């Protein structure tokens, strides 16, 4: 005797949603990830009010600030301490996090390895004074470049890094310490740092200046660097502490920076980027003088207008911690499964972060998320906040579509039962069919089982009608009309009296 097996699983959906970071390519470039080289203390003389205004205007959340060794090593450094105190207090009042860069030698133009005892004293003094105002420290600047370190090799830089790292951690164990940003994604230099000084930096920092070469070269270099990083610290992300483009053409600069920031963050290999530079400089070098997002006198260039509009996070809301995002994701998954069934939420894994963003940051209620899954996203917009999207025609047309008492219409004009009750109905029907007729005689299989279960659970059809439905071509069960109406039809009246074949 041939046995027929069929599942009691109710519905098959696209995929099981992943609970992961609620990141999305729509919201990769946010101001908690895209900071700014400011160096206010050194470059903001007679422009303090303009610096303050521009940083507030742009809602900047991270800045890079140079703690220049030379100015603290003079005979009477009190004025410089007052200067830095003022600037760091301004950052603190604005809620801006600071990456402090510690560099170079005690004399102007001194780019040799400093006396390590003097270097340690300097680092200790600065870090102790500003430990509550600086969130991360970068040790030196472009140590692989002959412009900033002589000789420019890991053997010269390593002791500088190690001395600073030990000193910083003794004062502030929670501070993040970066190597001095490499002048480029210098694979050989980075590998040597990992080999010989791996324990003396928490994140690798590099610089990226590719606007004359294009992003294909940049991505290739980052890919090579990622291979090195993964060999020593699998999955760890790097910081790009300088990304810039010197250009007289404001449109080109704006286009390059906006495209490149997105491209870099899409790699998943970079945690933070610091744009270089807040404003143009006046050195007499045409190349060096035109990296600014602002002009020399702090007027906006096109790139500034792009930068200041960068959102704080998804739906322009400040990001919460990854741990809290995970909790909200788990909570949402549990609620959605009450509508769709355990493991049956109808969403592809790659779209799950968009739904989480809408829930966590976009203000969308659960029912809007449910309806968006049912009706192609009509009730949730991936960019526009719920406060505004709820007034749209799409939202108004679909938010209550096919709902009965807050649950969506599933079959025969009725809301779907809770999944456990539906499963109970399925077991009940299967048992009665088996006991009264023998399932193997009824031609029921996975393909038609769900329709028959719906007829029983929602359409009110009796077991006798279900048993004859497949055998007699659906004459005793209508897929849309409930039993109380269909039982009056000629088809039903004729075929409900037909026998069920025996084995």
From TrEMBL:
Lineage: Bacteria, Candidatus Kerfeldiibacteriota
Protein name per UniProt: Asl1-like glycosyl hydrolase catalytic domain-containing protein
Domain Asl1-like glycosyl hydrolase catalytic per the UniProt entry, residue ranges: 188-280
GO molecular function, one term: hydrolase activity, hydrolyzing O-glycosyl compounds
Stretches assigned to coiled coil: none
InterPro entries named among the record's database cross-references: Asl1_glyco_hydro_catalytic, GH, Glycosyl_Hydrolase_39
Pfam families, per database record: Glyco_hydro_cc
Leader sequence residues: none
PANTHER family documented for this protein: ALPHA-L-IDURONIDASE, BETA-XYLOSIDASE-LIKE PROTEIN-RELATED
């Amino acid at each position: 005797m041939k046995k027929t097996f069929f599942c009691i699983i109710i519905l098959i959906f696209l995929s099981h949603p992943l609970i992961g970071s609620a990141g999305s390519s729509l919201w990769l470039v946010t101001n908690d990830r895209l900071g700014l080289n400011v160096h206010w203390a050194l470059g903001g003389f007679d422009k303090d009010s303009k610096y303050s205004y521009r940083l507030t205007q742009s809602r900047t959340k991270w800045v890079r600030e140079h703690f220049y060794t030379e100015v603290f090593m003079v005979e009477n450094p009190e004025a410089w301490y007052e200067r830095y105190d003022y600037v760091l207090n301004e950052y603190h009042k604005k809620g801006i996090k600071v990456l402090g860069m510690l560099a170079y030698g005690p004399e102007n133009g001194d780019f040799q390895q400093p006396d390590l005892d003097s270097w340690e004293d300097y680092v200790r003094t600065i870090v102790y004074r500003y430990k509550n105002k600086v969130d991360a420290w970068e040790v030196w600047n472009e140590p692989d470049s002959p412009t900033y370190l002589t000789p420019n090799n890991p053997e010269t830089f390593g002791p500088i890094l190690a001395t600073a790292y030990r000193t910083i951690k003794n004062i502030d164990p929670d501070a993040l310490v970066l190597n001095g940003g490499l002048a480029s994604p210098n694979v050989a230099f980075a590998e040597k740092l990992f080999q010989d000084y791996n324990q003396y930096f928490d994140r690798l920092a590099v610089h990226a200046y590719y606007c004359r070469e294009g992003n294909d070269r940049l991505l290739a270099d980052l890919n090579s660097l990622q291979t090195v990083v993964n060999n020593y610290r699998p999955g760890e992300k790097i910081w790009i502490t300088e990304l810039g483009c010197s250009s007289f053409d404001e449109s080109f600069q704006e286009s390059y920076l906006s495209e490149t920031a997105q491209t870099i963050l899409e790699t998943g290999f970079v945690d933070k980027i610091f744009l270089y530079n807040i404003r143009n400089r006046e050195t007499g070098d045409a190349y060096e003088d035109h990296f600014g997002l602002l002009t020399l006198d702090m007027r906006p260039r096109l790139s500034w207008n792009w930068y200041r509009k960068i959102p704080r996070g998804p739906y322009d809301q400040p990001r919460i911690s990854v741990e809290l995002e995970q909790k909200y994701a788990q909570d949402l998954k549990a609620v959605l499964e009450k509508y769709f069934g355990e493991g049956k939420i109808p969403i592809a894994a790659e779209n799950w972060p968009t739904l989480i963003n809408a829930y966590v940051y976009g203000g969308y209620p659960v029912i809007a998320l449910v309806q968006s899954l049912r009706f192609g996203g009509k009730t949730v917009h991936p960019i526009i906040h719920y406060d505004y999207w709820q007034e749209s025609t799409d939202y108004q047309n679909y938010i209550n579509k096919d709902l009965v008492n807050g649950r969506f219409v599933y079959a025969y004009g009725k809301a779907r039962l809770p999944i456990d009750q539906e499963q109970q109905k399925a077991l009940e029907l299967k048992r009665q069919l088996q006991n009264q007729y023998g399932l193997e005689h009824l031609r029921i299989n996975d393909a038609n089982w769900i329709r028959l279960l719906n007829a029983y659970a929602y359409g009110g059809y009796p077991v006798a009608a279900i048993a004859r439905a497949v055998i007699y071509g659906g004459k005793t069960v209508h897929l849309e009309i409930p039993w109380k109406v269909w039982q009056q039809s000629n088809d039903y009246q004729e075929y409900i009296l037909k026998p069920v074949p025996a084995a």
